[in-house]
Recover the amino acids of this structure.
């Protein structure tokens, strides 16, 4: 299974390394930025977005990919309630609320919170485990060819 890590953070700080290590327990990883080409996203099975505030500008769009969006407790420059309400009505979109501020996953952020980061890493791990189990069931059932090492 290949996992795509999308980040708008440049560099490779320790928090990003911790995210990578969590993912690598379950999958190969490719790291890209939102500015990468469309081909980088061709084999994505699931998207996990943390504090995805910019999505408010694209609520008319629909995803074809299973998506989990984790929102902060609030945003200072816009109201989260109508954004989350609109997203909860969409197919293939799971909206999760957190108790922490924007930036809770990033130790370089003023909003960082150690328990928020722990929760975020647990969400990533849970989704990866579910994807891996689904892939294994499909392989056992003969629905897809086994992945060669």
């Amino acid at each position: 299974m290949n996992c795509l890590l999308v980040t708008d953070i440049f560099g490779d700080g320790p928090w990003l390394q911790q995210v990578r290590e969590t993912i690598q327990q379950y999958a190969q990883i490719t790291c890209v930025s939102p500015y990468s080409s469309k081909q980088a996203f061709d084999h994505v099975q699931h998207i996990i977005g943390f504090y995805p505030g910019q999505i408010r500008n694209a609520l008319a769009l629909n995803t074809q990919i299973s998506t989990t969006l984790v929102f902060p407790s609030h945003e200072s420059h816009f109201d989260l309630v109508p954004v989350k309400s609109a997203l909860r009505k969409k197919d293939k979109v799971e909206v999760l609320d957190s108790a922490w501020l924007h930036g809770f996953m990033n130790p370089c952020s003023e909003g960082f919170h150690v328990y928020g980061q722990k929760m975020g890493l647990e969400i990533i791990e849970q989704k990866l485990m579910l994807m891996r189990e689904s892939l294994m069931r499909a392989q056992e059932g003969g629905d897809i060819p086994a992945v060669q090492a």
User: Anything to note?
Assistant: The mean pLDDT is 77. The first strand starts at residue 2 and ends at 6.
